[in-house]
Amino acid sequence: MTSVSSSILTALGAGSGIDTSSLVTSLVSAAKEPKQTAITTRQTLNTARISALASASSSLDTFADALNSLLAGTGYSGTPASNDTSIVAVSALPGGTPTGLPAQIEVQQLASARTLASTPVSGATSSTAVGEGQLTLTVGGNSATITIDSTNNSYSGLATAINNAGLGVTASVITDTQGTRLVLKGPTGEANDFSLTSVSGTDLAQFAWSGTDSSTMASMSDPKDAIIKLDGVEQHYASNTIDSAISYLRIDLNKASPGTTVTLATSEPTTSMRDLMVEFVDAYNTLMKALNTATATGTDSSNAGVLNGESSIRDMKRQLSQMVSTALTTTGTYKTLNDIGVSTNRDGTLSLDTTALDKAIAADPTAITQMLNPAVKTSTNIGLAGLMDSVRDNIKKDGGPLATSQSKYKALASDLTDQLDKLDTQMSDYQAQLTKVYSAMETRLSAMKATQSYLEQQVALWTKSSN
């Protein structure tokens, strides 16, 4: 007959071979997994939202930057040109559109540099010794010491030392049928004249020059400023490359031609405002469709957009939609995109009535160009790129809805990570508690089993004695 105590011991594993360690692990897993799943599910959604917000912000930047780049290109602004490149050549500088064109320029004088040459020495080479000592090179008030010793005592060593002085004077050694000589050339411009004076070393004194020619060193050309007349105003520059006379325009002076006027102008844009609006509407719609997908309601959470209900994206869409009715200029018949055929669809995308646009361009092409892409942006005529920049800056400003949402989801990501860490700690404590409980139970069951065994032995002895 099976005893009650034997049945209990068997069920609880005393001597039954049941692994209480596995039992503890199973109980901990059963308690942990639902909570862990709930947290990781929230983590997955939160990560997707962080990524989607970053993507929306990046897409906005891409749209605005592409529009700026497009309007800054020569296709919409035209290419700077000179009608006589043998005298003056021009090219656009990055960052903006040249203003003040067309302009008239007269090159009265090219900038030149001081050039010195030593007397040729017959039979000498670049490795011929020039003597040890020191020279002082002075350029426009800045000086450097040129030292010649046993390591660089040669024409080439002297030239290298002058070049390494970093004052803009270039030295070279020329050997021809006349012999070998040192040639020095300074920076262009009157203010960049230079001198080379002897400090020590009798032999090095042959290369000294401080304004007066000698039998061993002579000036071949004088330093001069470039002199131009731009729209009748005389201007002086130290270089033949000028990038400050006209904003965003590089002017290269190639030849002096006093009395000859060269016209600097801008060629006609190769791309029309019509093409601009087609590209703008297409790019805008690509951005808006992506935002619509991210905020789609869906029939349930499984097919809803990851940013469904996100207020910052609703705000972004609202501000973008206001672009079509925002005044780009305060004057003229055409002031907004609505005025030239742009309208908003129910889903937030745009439509372009090319017939209305063509009619507006035909009626006043200059006004349309100035409205969309002004030569000079002002507070009342910001242009299409200026408007896009303003909308972007407002959407992405510190403390705005987008920045607030990004901060919120980043904070939640940190909190969810902390929750997982806390859950791990709690479950470790729970496992330790269960292990302690079952270890104590095993000890008690072992003692009970020993008592049972003793009693069974005694009963067996009593039974045998009575027989």
Sheet-strand content, in percent, reads 15-25%
Number of distinct helices: 10
User: N-to-C terminal Cα separation, in Å?
Assistant: 20 Å
Mean of residue pLDDT values:
87
- Give the biggest sheet: 5 strands, antiparallel
Choose one word for the global shape.
Answer: flat
Please give the domain count.
Answer: 3
Arrangement of strands in the largest sheet: 1-15-3-11-12
- Helix/strand class: alpha+beta
Please give the number of β-strands.
17
Estimate percent helicity.
40-55%
**Uncertain stretches:** 1-17
State Rg: 44 Å
Q: Secondary-structure element order, as H and E?
A: HHHEEEEEEHEEEEEEEEEHHEEHHHH
Report on this model:
The protein has 467 residues and is an alpha+beta fold. It has three domains: 274 residues, no CATH class; 72 residues, no CATH class; 109 residues, no CATH class. 44% of the residues lie in helices and 20% in strands. The protein contains ten helices and 17 strands. A five-stranded antiparallel beta sheet has the order 1-15-3-11-12, with no helix packed on it. It has a four-stranded antiparallel beta sheet with strand order 7-8-4-10. Helix 2 runs antiparallel to helix 5, helix 6 packs antiparallel against helix 10 and helix 7 crosses helix 8. The longest helix has 66 residues. The N terminus is likely disordered.
Topology overview:
Blueprint: H1 4-12, H2 20-72, H3 74-77, E1 80-82, E2 88-92, E3 103-109, E4 113-118, E5 133-139, E6 142-148, H4 155-163, E7 170-176, E8 179-188, E9 194-200, E10 217-221, E11 226-230, E12 233-237, E13 241-242, E14 249-253, E15 262-266, H5 273-294, H6 311-321, E16 342-344, E17 350-352, H7 354-363, H8 365-372, H9 383-395, H10 401-466
Antiparallel strand pairs: 1-15, 2-14, 3-11, 3-15, 4-8, 4-10, 5-6, 5-9, 7-8, 11-12, 13-14, 16-17
Helix pairs in contact: 1-10, 2-5, 2-9, 2-10, 6-10, 7-8
